[in-house]
Specification:
rod-shaped, about 35% helix, alpha+beta, about 160 residues, 4-stranded antiparallel beta sheet
Length: about 160
């Protein structure tokens, strides 16, 4: 094991050693007592030490924030996110296949809003394959698919000309 050696010297011995070094180097002796020098140095280091401590606390909070957000975002610790898997059009019906991430889709509250402001609910929902059906429109529309834990998939659909 490696231990850091710490040498301790009382203030009077340190003052005598400092005065001896000054005398050996032919330098004017120190007029300020050694204990005052130590207090002055501690006073100069105090703001620096506080800044280092504050910086470390900010760093720890910054590093911990994503983990805290993940666990406090959802009480159960699981975040259910709905994702789009694919979409296709067949017989003027727009089919949207989603992955509810081990949750469920609220078919009754799934709807689309056209660019002109018309709200249209989903025609059907295949719960086995997680496929929602909407009427195929020739205008741009926003599609909202709500799921568990207040998660909602928002899609902007622009049909090809």
């Amino acid at each position: 094991m490696f231990f850091k050696k710490r040498y301790q010297l009382d203030v009077q011995s340190a003052d005598r050693t400092l005065q001896s070094v000054f005398a050996a180097c032919d330098v004017e002796p120190n007029t300020m007592p050694f204990d005052k020098l130590i207090l002055r140095e501690k006073a100069h280091l105090a703001p620096y030490n506080r800044r280092i401590t504050a910086t470390l606390m900010i760093l720890l909070i910054t590093l911990a924030t994503p983990f805290l957000f993940f666990f406090f975002y959802n009480e159960s610790g699981k975040v259910h996110v709905i994702t789009l898997e694919q979409h296709y059009v067949d017989n003027n019906v727009l089919y949207i296949k989603v992955d509810p991430c081990h949750g469920s889709i609220d078919r009754n509250n799934s709807y689309l809003i056209t660019a002109s402001g018309k709200k249209i609910t989903a025609l059907s929902y295949d719960s086995d394959n997680h496929i929602l059906a909407f009427p195929y429109l020739t205008e741009e529309c926003n599609i909202y698919i709500p799921g568990e834990n207040n998660s909602t998939l928002h899609l902007l659909y622009t049909p090809l000309p």
